Amino acid sequence: MRIYSSGRREESAVFPGAETSAAEGRRWLRKILGDHPRRDDAVLLLSELLTNAVLHTTSTELHATVLIDWDAVIHLKVADQGAPTSPCLCRPQPDPLTESGRGIHLVRNLSHRWGFLKDTTGCVVWLTLDPHNPPDPPTSHRAVYQEARCD
Question: Could you tell me the pTM of the whole model?
Answer without folding.
Answer: 0.80
